[in-house]
Write a structure and sequence with these properties.
Helix content is 4%, strand content 50%. It has 192 residues and is mainly β. The strands form six sheets. A four-stranded antiparallel β-sheet has the order 3-4-5-6, with no helix packed on it. A four-stranded antiparallel β-sheet has the order 9-10-11-12, with no helix packed on it. A four-stranded antiparallel β-sheet has the order 13-14-15-16, with no helix packed on it. β17 and β18 form a beta hairpin.
Length: 192
């Protein structure tokens, strides 16, 4: 009976001897996932663009959202998904959006084509989208723009990036043509 219930709920006990050993079943391979600030919920997205929110303690599926489609009915795959307060924050090729658990859009911040990716500092409520020539920072609670940083170098930005722990500094790497050297640009977000 426990096995049948587990199959119904898309969870099962792996039998491993660890603190938590629940497997969260997805329909397709997992593309990205992250915990909320408390570690009690996990959001994940599969290769088909389906977004799942799970209760970590027991593996309960709290919500499952359909993939977003473009004007040609093609799936827009998220680069990154995170949970912030009561919202699901999604970064895709167009920008960042926040959805309620029922799929209702709370805000959408279009930054233009995101070629390289996105990163979030949940602790500080900041998100960044990175194109080849600029970084756009947004407030995750409101969707409003905090700052924009233009690339002052010839080399394009890459997807390698990081926030400082306090969310006040940001670093991003650049493509270097000779492949013999590398460049990382550091920004003080508060000064910009």
């Amino acid at each position: 009976a426990q096995y049948a219930l587990g199959e119904c709920l898309n969870i099962y006990n792996t039998g491993n001897v660890v603190g938590m050993d629940i497997a969260l079943k997805h329909e397709l391979p997992v593309r990205d996932f992250s915990y909320d600030e408390s570690g009690e919920r996990l959001v994940s997205v599969d290769q088909g663009g389906y977004i799942y929110v799970w209760k970590v303690e027991n593996g309960e599926l709290l919500t499952k959202l359909m993939p977003e489609l473009d004007d040609n009915n093609e799936i827009i795959l998220p680069h990154k998904v995170v949970l912030y307060q009561d919202d699901i924050i999604i970064a895709n090729e167009n920008g960042i959006k926040a959805l309620a658990y029922d799929g209702t859009e709370r805000y959408s911040f279009l930054t233009g084509r995101i070629e390289t990716g996105a990163i979030f500092s949940i602790e500080n409520g900041i998100g960044a989208t990175v194109t080849l020539d600029r970084v756009v920072f947004i407030d995750l609670g409101t969707g409003s723009q905090i700052a924009t940083l233009q690339n002052g170098r010839e080399e394009s930005f890459t997807s390698t990036m990081a926030f400082s722990r306090d969310g006040k500094k940001f670093a991003v790497a650049h493509f270097v043509e000779d492949a013999q050297s590398g460049v990382v640009t550091y920004f003080d977000i508060e000064r910009e």
